[in-house]
Specification:
59% helix
Length: 79
Protein backbone atom coordinates (compact mmCIF):
# COMPACT_ATOMS: atom_id res chain seq x y z
CA UNK A 1 0.00 0.00 0.00
CA UNK A 2 1.22 3.52 -0.77
CA UNK A 3 0.85 5.95 2.11
CA UNK A 4 1.39 9.71 1.92
CA UNK A 5 2.59 11.23 5.18
CA UNK A 6 2.22 14.92 5.94
CA UNK A 7 4.02 17.42 8.12
CA UNK A 8 1.90 16.89 11.23
CA UNK A 9 2.29 13.11 11.06
CA UNK A 10 6.06 13.29 10.63
CA UNK A 11 6.50 15.70 13.53
CA UNK A 12 4.16 13.75 15.81
CA UNK A 13 5.95 10.50 14.96
CA UNK A 14 9.30 11.89 16.06
CA UNK A 15 8.46 14.03 19.09
CA UNK A 16 6.36 11.55 21.05
CA UNK A 17 5.77 7.85 21.47
CA UNK A 18 2.06 8.00 20.74
CA UNK A 19 -0.16 6.76 17.98
CA UNK A 20 1.78 8.39 15.10
CA UNK A 21 5.05 6.95 16.37
CA UNK A 22 3.52 3.49 16.54
CA UNK A 23 2.06 3.85 13.05
CA UNK A 24 5.37 5.06 11.68
CA UNK A 25 7.16 2.04 13.17
CA UNK A 26 4.49 -0.24 11.72
CA UNK A 27 4.85 1.29 8.25
CA UNK A 28 8.64 1.05 8.34
CA UNK A 29 8.51 -2.63 9.34
CA UNK A 30 5.86 -3.61 6.79
CA UNK A 31 5.55 -3.74 3.02
CA UNK A 32 3.91 -0.32 2.89
CA UNK A 33 5.67 2.45 1.02
CA UNK A 34 5.77 5.88 2.59
CA UNK A 35 5.62 8.94 0.37
CA UNK A 36 6.04 12.62 1.00
CA UNK A 37 7.16 15.63 -1.02
CA UNK A 38 10.01 18.10 -1.00
CA UNK A 39 7.51 20.77 0.04
CA UNK A 40 6.39 18.72 3.07
CA UNK A 41 10.00 17.95 4.07
CA UNK A 42 10.86 21.64 3.79
CA UNK A 43 7.89 22.48 6.02
CA UNK A 44 8.97 19.84 8.59
CA UNK A 45 12.46 21.34 8.63
CA UNK A 46 11.11 24.87 9.09
CA UNK A 47 8.87 23.80 11.97
CA UNK A 48 11.71 21.94 13.71
CA UNK A 49 14.04 24.92 13.30
CA UNK A 50 11.41 27.32 14.70
CA UNK A 51 10.79 24.96 17.62
CA UNK A 52 14.49 24.63 18.37
CA UNK A 53 14.93 28.40 18.31
CA UNK A 54 12.00 28.81 20.71
CA UNK A 55 13.39 26.11 23.00
CA UNK A 56 16.84 27.74 22.89
CA UNK A 57 15.36 31.11 23.84
CA UNK A 58 13.37 29.59 26.71
CA UNK A 59 16.42 27.71 28.02
CA UNK A 60 18.68 30.78 27.86
CA UNK A 61 16.02 32.95 29.53
CA UNK A 62 15.58 30.40 32.34
CA UNK A 63 19.34 30.00 32.80
CA UNK A 64 19.70 33.79 33.08
CA UNK A 65 16.81 33.95 35.55
CA UNK A 66 18.55 31.36 37.73
CA UNK A 67 21.94 33.11 37.38
CA UNK A 68 23.47 30.09 35.66
CA UNK A 69 25.05 32.08 32.81
CA UNK A 70 28.16 34.11 33.50
CA UNK A 71 30.72 35.94 31.41
CA UNK A 72 33.97 34.14 30.74
CA UNK A 73 37.41 35.12 29.55
CA UNK A 74 36.35 33.81 26.13
CA UNK A 75 33.56 36.32 25.66
CA UNK A 76 29.99 37.02 26.59
CA UNK A 77 27.91 33.86 27.00
CA UNK A 78 24.70 35.75 27.66
CA UNK A 79 23.13 34.83 24.42
Amino acid sequence: MKIVIDTNFIIAAFISHGYCHELFDYFINSNHKLYTSDWILKEVNEKFVKSLVKIHIIIIREMKRRNLIHKTAFGDTNG
